Amino acid sequence: MLNIIICGAPGSGKGTQSEFIVEKYELKHLSTGDLLRNEIKGKTELGVIAEGYISQGQLVPDKMIIDIIIKNIDEQPETCKGFILDGFPRTVGQAEALEEILNARNKKSTVLLDLNVPEEELISRLLKRGESSGRSDDNLETIKKRLDVYYSQTAPVAEYYKTLNKYAFVEGVGTIEEIFDRISSAIEANK
Fold this sequence. Notes:
This protein is an alpha/beta fold. 59% of the residues lie in helices and 14% in strands.
């Protein structure tokens, strides 16, 4: 079973590359961003609370995210070949919780793919995405806050997975296909 974590700053291409990984390896895509956006769109209690954090460029509290992840992992059928986590874990605490959740279910993480993209490129990509998608969180002020949060809270997750020998650096600049080739090589090397 492949259980992959894709990590990188906002705009690094996690969602795009996750789609290719899902197709090639037949994995279930668990995107906390998508799960949270669905909650917000549905105006659920969780969605209203989450929107307050997101609109300020802050991370949703660990407990809320961990509960969503547990629910989704537990809903997977026995035939599931694994999953790709996109947007989780975002803190070392979440990473430790994920490892505990997986161990309790006799599963394990395979590798953390760390998509690396220069900050100027990230900002450019996110501003373009905001223009085309209308996502309210893709404006310069919120982007800068999101990047600050990423560097201070999420980047240390990569260091945690390095200590577990489950880390792969992936250059996140180039064509989508070139980046995916790098990702595929990293997955194959860590199976």
